[in-house]
Amino acid sequence: MPAADSRTRFLDAAVHLIRTCGYEAATIDELCREAGLTKGSFFHHFRSKEDLALAAADHFAGAADALFGQAPYHAHVDSRDRVLGYVDFRRAILRGAVPEFTCLFGTMVQETYDTHPALREACDRHIGAHADAVARDLDAARADRAPDAEWTAQSLALFTQAVLQGAFVLAKARGGPEVADQCLAHLRRYLELLLSSPGSPQPGVTDHVHGQ
Amino acid sequence: MPAADSRTRFLDAAVHLIRTCGYEAATIDELCREAGLTKGSFFHHFRSKEDLALAAADHFAGAADALFGQAPYHAHVDSRDRVLGYVDFRRAILRGAVPEFTCLFGTMVQETYDTHPALREACDRHIGAHADAVARDLDAARADRAPDAEWTAQSLALFTQAVLQGAFVLAKARGGPEVADQCLAHLRRYLELLLSSPGSPQPGVTDHVHGQ
Q1: pLDDT single digits (tens) B50-92
Q2: Contact of B138 with B153, CB cutoff 8 Å
Q3: Which of B109, B166, B194 sits opposite A173 (nearest CB)?
Q4: Which has fewest Cβ within 10 Å: A18, A37, A125, B46?
């Protein structure tokens, strides 16, 4: 299916270019050059750059869902281990060049939140959906380790995403992932402190894998 | 001094416009319109948009230094109170529209880190200088409350800045400051937990005010 193929090449080009230079600087000409396709092909698939960016957001979220859905931390029986394993996994994937490990949504919303409401909404929805997945494990860990805590799993899940987004900003400023890894080490320590009470006995399930 | 005045109008226009729509979308035409000045005046003061953005970064950092230098938390005798007071002050200034409380450096570096090395360097330097100021109080609090801690004041100071930058990203995605305030409440709780040991007796100084 050459049509489907060229659409995917535009989506991949948009994810890479926007993560590298932001939404506004990624012109349609640049996107065509990055995809190795013509402007005619672009307008065959997309009405506008915003239309492509919205599709690229779904594309990026789908890839992230697949990556996190298969990640090893879901196999932990103990909810606290799943929470800490999530942070360890986020640290493990801080690899390669900055555009490869930073977040399309955080990059895009930073500059478009006021001028492109549809992009703001898409970034909010995708960041929120990922936070919701984290919140499910945090909710279980809270019930198990800190049932009287004044914090909610939802606010803590959003905090994990804020730390990640801010860690990416600092990684961009410093030119590498080291500072982001340090920030995630602090996030891990905070979660360890919040969930430091002994948990209730776990059921005898050893291969309990949660879906995304 | 009309010349100095028009330069400041460009600096203020750049801070406002870049915080609203990002660096790339803030064209020289838009910057002139925002400042109410001509393109001739622009090029009298600045060689290029990047030249203006670098001057605007210094201008923004100067305003931030003045704001934080006069903030009430410096008056606390206890270093832990200064650290927590810093977070409380950051929460207190999460007011108004999103462009008014978010960070020029985080916004600008997000999209320019790869394409504009001079802007990346300026953002890194200014974020780092603010983190260094926070680190001085954290260093004192660590010595007083957690001398054997495995974390360093410098890494914790950078973590506070990551939380702030990420909180701004989420505030942009959500369209308001509430989520940022929730994130800073988590940051405060983390600092409280790290610095929870009783401090050594304070010297009898009650009006000890640290400069910025």
Answers
A1: 999 999 999 999 999 999 999 999 999 999 999 999 999 999 9
A2: yes
A3: B109
A4: A125
Query: What is the model's pLDDT at position B199?
Result: 76
* Residue of A121, A132, A183 to mutate, interface with B, max B Cβ within 10 Å: A183
**Non-local CB neighbours of B83 within 8 Å, separated by 6+ positions:** B134, B137, B138, B141, B191, B195
ipTM: 0.93
For residue A208, how many C-alpha atoms fall within 13 Å in the half-sphere facing its CB? 12
A191 Cβ under 8 Å from any chain B Cβ: no
Q: At what angle do helices A79-92 and A117-145 cross, to 10 degrees?
A: 140
Mean pLDDT of chain A, nearest integer:
93
B58 CB-near residues (< 8 Å, 6+ apart): B122
Asked if the C-beta of A174 comes within 8 angstroms of chain B's C-beta atoms, the answer is: yes
Sequence-distant (≥ 6) Cβ neighbours of residue A37 within 8 angstroms: A6, A9, A10
**Per-run averaged pLDDT (10 residues), chain B, 212 residues:** 78 98 98 98 98 98 97 97 98 95 98 98 98 98 97 98 98 97 98 89 48 40
pTM of the predicted model over 0.90: yes
- The per-residue DSSP string of B19-81 comes to HHH-TTTS-HHHHHHHHT--HHHHHHH-SSHHHHHHHHHHHHHHHHHHHHHT-GGGG-SSHHH
Shortest Cα–Cα distance, A164 to chain B (Å):
7
For the stretch A77-93, pLDDT in tens is 999 999 999 999 999 99
| A82, amino acid identity | R
Length reported for chain B: 212
Q: Given A114, A182, A189, which is nearest B21 (Cβ)?
A: A114
Whole-number Å distance between alpha carbons of A6 and A27: 18
CA atoms within 13 A on the CB side of A78: 12
- pLDDT value of residue B201: 59
Distance CA B192, CA B131 (A): 18
Residue A197 pLDDT: 85
How distant is the Cα of A204 from the closest Cα of chain B, in angstroms? 33
Select from A33, A49, A197 the least CA-distant residue to A116.
A49
Dihedral sign for Cα A153, A154, A157, A162, please.
negative
